[in-house]
Task: inverse folding
């Protein structure tokens, strides 16, 4: 039971004055998975992570990591980046890692070179951190989190400030670490980022968990058992499309981030029938495609229903 | 796994890491350079006064004989110079850098997200700062002592040097108190300037209170001299006893100040939210 979980959070609550940043949050992160922790800005992701790592005091709730709940001991074997990693700017990247290593138990020493190698910083390791670019600092932060070969890696927005190449490097690094058996807990609001690496996700809104589970299952559940499909429509008059779609039975509008498209969810009508129905009403279409179920639409629909309440 | 000894190998590596931070940045280096230069400066000044005085005569005698400069006395001046203002200010500054500044620039959270109790982290920082203070004192004494012993007239028997030697040792105790006080104030402020102002305001308040105590004493309201000895300002100056007689109350006050500040700083550090 509990030991199969890398992280178990129950009833975690943290307030800042009157504002509740995290509210009765429950999370179960299975060991050996890549877990995506999703939520819009200000939804409490970083606050929850800080509480897990004992940086913030929780107002209520329990956290255990690999079954250990002692706030100090549970951190043994955990590597973390929280928000933007910071360093002693007057020291070299390597010296920064050496100082961090001194704080680890001895059996976790000896990983500095490998960590620098893994994030592609080995050749710049002797430069002062004050001369590092944002992306290099982010990489050094990942290297620091990898010191001591953690069993659990907690990454809060690790791709901040990285260029596309850097983002891909991080993605590949995460995959490789997961293959080696490391549990990776990665928070982000970049849904495509998460979908590319995570097998399990938890979604938070306003400090509360609104969904958790395997990505494939969540997507299937949101598509419905009926086999509903999401269809993306484009045309010269988007308002006309919306108007006509609204009249159709079993077809509903979904929120869409692309302003030149209308996204609908069709319970029964296949795309060809929808096309026929719209054209018969004199609505011109210049694009129609069935969209693969994505975390983004799941996320947006969860966000939408939240705001309606 | 972690050693059963609460202050084991990890602790001393933490101390070494903190000391490395201190010694690798300008503030720490400048502090040690000043520690080395001050006794040389005092020595040069003393020699200048002595040399200038020799050519002046009063009542047919050279002035130097009125201004009798002896080795132990000059070493005492060096001690006063070392403990007066500049180096304590540096000590407060570097202490604030290890806690207040690290909190402000978020380097603290990386240290606190590792499997060590916070009190141990704070104690490691304290030990590193105390080591820096000891190096500073050893540097000043190591340069000033031989200068006074070899190049200045005066007694050669050890007994004559005992008082001032103890003054140097006592200034490490004073530094220990000052660092503890600074760490405590660093749990209230996240800027080095804020901590400096806090320490200075605190010591000014202390001075004012001791003034009031003296007035109370003069008005014979109640005997206050012992209380005054316990006050932080007097306690931090316990080393001055080398010249005007040791005050056991000042040392008791220093012990209480050090332990009290450390305990309270640890208590607050243990509970604080780290962003
Ligand atoms: N130190 C703090 N003091 C006061 N309020 C805070 C503090 N930290 C966070 N909050 C509030 O708690 C809420 C959650 O913030 P948090 O940083 O955890 O969000 P997040 O999900 O990490 O957002 P983002 O995606 O922007 O990083 C926000 O409303 C924020 O204003
Ligand atoms: Mg955040």
Result:
């Amino acid at each position: 039971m509990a030991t199969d979980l890398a992280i178990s959070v129950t009833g975690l609550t943290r307030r800042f004055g009157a504002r509740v940043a995290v509210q009765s949050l429950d999370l179960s992160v299975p060991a050996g998975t890549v877990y995506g922790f999703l939520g819009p800005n200000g939804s409490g992701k970083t606050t929850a992570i800080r509480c897990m790592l004992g940086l913030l005091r929780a107002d209520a709730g329990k956290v255990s990591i690999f079954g250990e709940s002692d706030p100090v001991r549970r951190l043994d074997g955990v590597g973390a980046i929280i928000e933007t990693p910071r360093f002693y700017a007057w020291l070299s990247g390597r010296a920064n890692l050496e100082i961090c290593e001194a704080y680890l138990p001895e059996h976790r020493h000896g990983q500095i070179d490998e960590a620098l190698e893994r994030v592609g910083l080995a050749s710049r390791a002797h430069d002062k951190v004050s001369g590092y670019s944002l992306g290099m600092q982010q990489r050094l932060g990942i290297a620091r989190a990898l010191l001591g070969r953690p069993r659990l890696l907690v990454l809060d927005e690790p791709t901040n400030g990285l260029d596309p190449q850097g983002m891909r490097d991080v993605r590949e690094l995460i995959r490789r670490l997961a293959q080696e058996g490391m549990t990776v807990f990665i928070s982000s609001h970049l849904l495509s980022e998460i979908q590319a690496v995570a097998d399990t996700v938890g979604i938070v809104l306003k400090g509360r968990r609104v969904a958790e589970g395997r990505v494939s299952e969540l997507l299937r559940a949101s598509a419905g058992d009926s086999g509903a499909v999401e269809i993306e429509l484009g045309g010269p008059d988007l308002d006309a499309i919306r108007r006509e779609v609204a009249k159709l039975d079993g077809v509903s509008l979904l929120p869409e981030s692309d302003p030149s498209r209308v996204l609908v969810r069709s319970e029964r009508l296949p795309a060809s029938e929808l096309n026929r129905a719209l054209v018969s009403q004199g609505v011109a279409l210049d694009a129609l495609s069935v969209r693969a179920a994505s975390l983004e639409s799941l996320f947006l629909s969860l966000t939408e229903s939240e705001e309606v309440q | 796994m972690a050693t059963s000894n609460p202050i084991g190998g990890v602790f001393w590596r933490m101390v070494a890491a903190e000391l490395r931070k201190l010694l690798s940045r300008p503030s720490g280096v400048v502090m040690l350079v000043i520690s080395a230069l001050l006794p040389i400066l005092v020595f040069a000044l003393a020699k200048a006064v002595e040399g200038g005085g020799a050519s002046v005569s009063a009542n047919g005698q050279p002035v130097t004989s009125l201004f009798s400069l002896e080795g132990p006395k000059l070493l005492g001046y060096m001690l006063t110079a070392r403990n007066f203002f500049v180096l304590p200010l540096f000590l407060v500054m570097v202490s604030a850098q290890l806690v207040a500044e690290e909190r402000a620039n978020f380097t603290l959270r990386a240290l606190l997200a590792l499997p060590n109790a916070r009190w141990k982290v704070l104690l490691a920082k304290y030990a590193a700062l105390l080591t820096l203070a000891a190096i500073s004192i050893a540097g000043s004494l190591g340069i000033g002592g031989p200068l006074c012993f070899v190049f200045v007239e005066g007694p050669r028997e050890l007994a004559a040097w005992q008082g001032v030697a103890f003054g140097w040792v006592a200034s490490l105790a004073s530094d220990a108190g000052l660092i503890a006080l600074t760490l405590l104030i660093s749990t209230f402020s996240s800027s080095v300037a804020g901590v400096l102002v806090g320490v200075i305001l605190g010591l000014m308040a202390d001075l004012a209170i001791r003034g009031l105590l003296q007035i109370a004493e003069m008005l014979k309201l109640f005997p206050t001299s012992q209380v005054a000895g316990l006050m932080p300002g007097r306690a931090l100056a316990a080393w001055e006893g080398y010249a005007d007689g040791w005050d056991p109350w000042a040392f008791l006050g220093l012990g209480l100040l050090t332990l009290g500040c450390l305990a309270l700083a640890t208590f607050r550090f243990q509970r604080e939210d780290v962003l």
User: Anything to note?
Assistant: Residues 23 and 230 of chain B are 33 Å apart (CA to CA). Chain B touches chain A through 29 residues (CB under 8 Å). Residues 118-151 of chain B form the longest helix (34 residues). The pocket of adenosine-5'-triphosphate (ligand 1) is lined by residues A 16, 19, 21, 39, 41-47, 189; B 275 (CB under 6 Å).
